[in-house]
Design a protein that fits this description.
The chain has nine helices and eleven strands. It is of the alpha+beta class.
Length: 239
Amino acid sequence: MVLAGGTILMPELNYGRLRPERVLLLQEAGLTGIHRDGSSLTIAAMTTLADLEDAPEPLATTARSVADHEIRAQATLGGNLCAPPGGERPRGDLQAALIALGASVRSVGKDGERTEAVEDFLAGGTDDRLVLEVGLEEPRRAGHASLRRPHTHSYTILAVCAAETSGGVRVGVTGAGLTGIRARSVEQALAGGASPEDAAPKVLDDAKPQDDALASAWYRERMLPVLVRRALDDLEGGQ
């Protein structure tokens, strides 16, 4: 088991649901910090969410929206990115923002080191990969919309992030699948000249909402196009 911030794994260990033979602690691995080179950022895997609260949008807003200050001070970029799907609620809040920003992930595993788009990293499974860093370009503009459930740790039911990058407008979603997804159908509609109002419903071509303790798939299917429209309107307002 690899232990980063521990916000997910420590409760599992304390309750005896996980009993690893060995644990690799990353606190002293030197994988922290944000390096900026012009408009490019490289963020080390052990950088905390609290340290991301001043990052480019929509990553900053997403980081500030995770749980509470205590959790954000401990949880890490790499841990959040690799968070396994939760049976009771969505995890991996940062995934939508990183997808929208066109981030790349540098990781290492038994087949060596590789760098790939964040959506490819998530689709390939994260169990056998150790994240080293994430790279991204500061977008021209960004938008964000989310649906949350009040709680001590303020859970996110759904979140949509949009960003205009050098490759065009990208849209990422969390809470509408086992991991964050890229809403390519929405992007293609926008690239073809569709308005945000007409493009937003296309998200249901990409998403596969599921029931959990926070909300039903039925509710998510009806709210998701609304949040996409709000995120795109927020993007337009960032001009």
